[in-house]
Write a structure and sequence with these properties.
- The protein is mainly α and about 150 residues long.
- It has a domain of about 80 residues.
- It contains four helices and no strands.
- Helix 2 runs parallel beside helix 4.
- It comes from Musa acuminata subsp. malaccensis (Wild banana).
Length: about 150
């Protein structure tokens, strides 16, 4: 008897009913697993907490991308190590946001995009700066890649 590659031939119907189906297309609903097995679950309010966490993570990614935590005059080696640590933290948080979005829940996608957008609005755009960035102001345009030079 072929079980479709299920492995153990002694599997019965009660074990089959406990299998979890992972969504591979976007869906809407609060019953989802985000980042951890069984979380947020079906308890009231936990889905909203999960959305707030995803929002906060994506907001934090933008803050880390645009903040200046290393003071001028910091030693070359210390500044390099600090930048490396900040980069690793930013990339790690960005991967957590990506994994949350891979839950294929529409609310999680919206929370991640809005978190990135609000973070960029506050920290990356010139909306809240007293002096707008000039096109030649490379120091204020922090991103993943340095400006192109020929």
């Amino acid at each position: 008897m072929d079980h479709g590659g299920m492995g153990d031939m002694s599997m019965n119907n009660s074990n089959m009913a406990k299998r979890h189906y992972t969504h591979m297309t976007f869906f809407w609903g609060k019953n989802s697993e985000i980042l951890f097995s069984g979380w947020p679950g079906t308890r009231g309010g936990m889905y909203a907490l999960a959305l707030l966490l995803v929002f906060a993570l994506s907001f934090l990614v933008e803050w880390l991308n645009h903040c200046r935590l290393i003071r001028p005059g910091t030693g070359h080696v210390a500044a390099g190590l600090a930048r490396t640590t900040l980069h690793a933290a930013r990339v790690g948080l960005a991967y957590l946001v990506m994994l949350a979005v891979m839950s294929f829940n529409g609310g999680v996608l919206i929370a991640a995009v809005v978190g990135h957008a609000v973070g960029f609005l506050l920290f990356g755009s010139s909306v809240f700066r007293k002096t707008p960035l000039q096109p030649t102001d490379n120091d204020g345009l922090k991103g993943d890649l340095p400006p192109m030079a020929c």
